[in-house]
Amino acid sequence: xxxxxxxxxxxxxxxxxxxxxxRRLLREDPEMALWWSSPVECASALWRRLRAGDVxxxxxxxxxxxxxxxxxxxxxxxxxxxxRERALQVLAVHALGAADALQLAAALxxxxxxxxxxxxVCFDRRLRAxxxxxxxxxxxxxxxxxxxxxxxxxxxxVTEVAASYGRVRRHALTxxxxx
Length: 179
Description:
Layout: E1 2-4, H1 6-13, H2 19-28, E2 32-35, H3 38-52, H4 57-73, E3 75-77, H5 81-93, H6 98-110, E4 119-121, H7 125-133, E5 137-139, E6 156-162, E7 167-173
Parallel strand pairs: 1-2, 1-4, 2-3, 4-5
Antiparallel strand pairs: 6-7
Helix pairs in contact: 1-2, 1-3, 3-4, 5-6
């Protein structure tokens, strides 16, 4: 079972450059875990494309039905206190926005205890980098989807004070080249 970020779900709903890669990943492992608000993020993308005239009503309806299917079949991480607390910790370590911090926190809470690595499907560079630093196996793994691989020993160690937790946290920051 892999955790799917919204950036990887949307290509399953509409034909776009990353759709082929997303469909391949879903065929490889059809069991999906989602953050509770991912369907809302996807619905926002669907409505935005309909309003912009990028899709017709029939395509929109098909995409919305596919989203409903994912919602009913996927394992959903609910908005519990443990996810919120983990998101606060994630924000102290990674340069993410609130929505991405909650996505990553949900994946961390969902990961079985003692598991070294589980799959994280994502097309967002910043969230991929943060999930990689948290020990997830990132999908897609190669550059065929237009996303650069992670250097095995890249990054530099920095010391960051997380005042809200009263301790010094050390973490590796990997620079991701922007195209």
